[in-house]
Amino acid sequence: MAGPVQSIERAAAILRLLAGGSRRLGLGEVASSLGLAKGTAHGILRTLQHVDFVEQDPATGKYQLGAALLHLGTSYLDVNELRSRSINWADALAARSGEAVRLGTPLEGRVLVIHHVFRPDDTLQTLDVGALLPLHASSLGKVLLAFGATPVEPLLDDEPEAYTRHTLVHPEELNRALGEIRDLGWGAEVQEMSMGEAGIAAPIRGQGGLVVGAIGVSGAVERICDTKGRPQPALITVLREAARAISRDLGAARW
């Protein structure tokens, strides 16, 4: 039986590296991160660029995932039951809340955004479908951690990254926050991933009541929270109603 093809393994490693980062990477960064010679990494990147799986910024020369690869991911997500059953409810939630709505599931220690509804106004916004968010610094991720959709232990073994001064990086703080989320039935992040931004999220349950994803509302902190930095009760209400509706559609009897 033939063994694995090394060039394909290396190409996959490069794609995973680009998908896991929050910024574009240069040739040297890609090569050093994966232990590849620059010539080898450059050849693979050029091939991936040729088929539009990777794009190169003409100004900086750095690389990011390309449109063709993101299109393939979106095609897969179109048949994902969670996404397909959530689309109408997510659209309605964006309309009712006046804010952006994202749907997330756990993937390899991060949150994969599988659906994103823009805030219903004329502001310039970037589509987040396919983005990977940190578990500990996003409302979607904290909900998934709190309700056991993804294990918390690996995150606590190594101190998580601090994105802002508000990010929860100490195990005691994070565990306490997850306990509060379980008690409340929803979670929030206030300027923990990005200054000036806030979000709230609620769990989505499938058959048997298991949490299979999370739905969240996000936007400017002054719109999501009151003057004391607490999420607006009206937003929490419409969010939880949407999460319950999706859960019922997925067969969660208790909802």
From TrEMBL:
Pfam families: HTH_IclR, IclR_C. PROSITE patterns: HTH_ICLR, ICLR_ED. Residues 68-252 form the IclR-ED domain. Keywords: DNA-binding, Transcription, Transcription regulation. InterPro entries: GAF-like_dom_sf (IPR029016), HTH_MetabolicPath_Reg (IPR050707), Tscrpt_reg_IclR_C (IPR014757), Tscrpt_reg_IclR_N (IPR005471), WH-like_DNA-bd_sf (IPR036388), WH_DNA-bd_sf (IPR036390). Residues 5-67 form the HTH iclR-type domain. Coiled coil: none annotated. SUPFAM superfamilies: GAF domain-like (SSF55781), Winged helix' DNA-binding domain (SSF46785). This is IclR family transcriptional regulator. It comes from Streptomyces shaanxiensis.
